[in-house]
Amino acid sequence: MAYTTINKSGDYFNTKLFTGNGGTNALTGVGFEPSLTWIKCRDDTHNPNWFDAVRGVTKRISSHSTAAESTVANSLTSFNNDGFTLGASGGENSNNNTYASWNWKAGTTSGQATNSYSTITPTSISFNQTSGFSIIKYTGNATAGAGVPHGLGVAPKMVMTKNLDSSTYGWYCYHASLGATKSLYLHTSDAEVTSNSRWNGWVPDATNVSLGTNHGVNGGSNNIIMYCFAEKTGYSKIGSYTGNGSADGSFVYTGFKPAFLMVKRTDSTGNWYINDTKRDPYNRMSHTLFPDLSDSETSTGWFVDCVSNGFKIRDTGSVNQSGGSFIYMAFAEAPLVGTNNVPCTAR
Prior knowledge:
- The protein is mostly beta strands.
- Among the domains are: 124-229, no CATH class; 237-338, no CATH class.
- It is built from 3 helices and 27 strands.
- The two termini are 18 Å apart.
């Protein structure tokens, strides 16, 4: 049984749906003060935009693009105790458009987590060892083997980076299922890329993420943002599966009822797919948004059931091609069994 010390997943991750009003929009109901808020318009072609407390409000980056960080004064203007406030920017708050936001909590304050192997000292870092999530801003040194401390105390299984100063380099992703010689691009549908220039061929350890010389992760004198996710039993799962090409698709055990699921094919081209239980409260889940596209939501992308202990693919293509290799990252709606010994029920 998947017991967890995080009995309420909503203390650290939550999906917030809302309708834009084209003005000041103070949104509540997240359940905590977000450290990372990722916003995507559902019914129009707006960018999937990221805001975090380490870089500061109004600082925007988009996961479908190589564009450098921009300052948008009327975008996300504050992180609040139970949500966030938006200005009139159409990418996040166009009047009458509908939006999904995915919110994570890291630390409430910044700190340092270096050791003797950390060769880069973050300019700012926020980390939460309970939920296994950290945000690190640092300046690259273009040196192979540079170590960036992540603060989690255990090795992260998913790492995402973006060079904030450059529009040449996009989003580089490490995933434990692929290993340290491979990476994915969050901003494209490309298959995995083999190169030591990203992670230097070293798997992240309990303290540091090792970097190569690629400017997307370690550009000399460039400002870089890094998001690290570690697995926590009953709350988060970061893994892989093999497609079978059947509508009675693969079942993936997570040990909890997923609230958020992101999937990507790795051995061939294929978009990134996101489903969540706020947009689809009932199985089968079909409403999909794409981290690597500005497209509006589709209900024909792929089909999945989220159950009490994992997810079941219900699609013959997209994320279930026969023999295809897929990675995923999932966060819990509720654990299978918490420390209160109360089991989670199916949907």
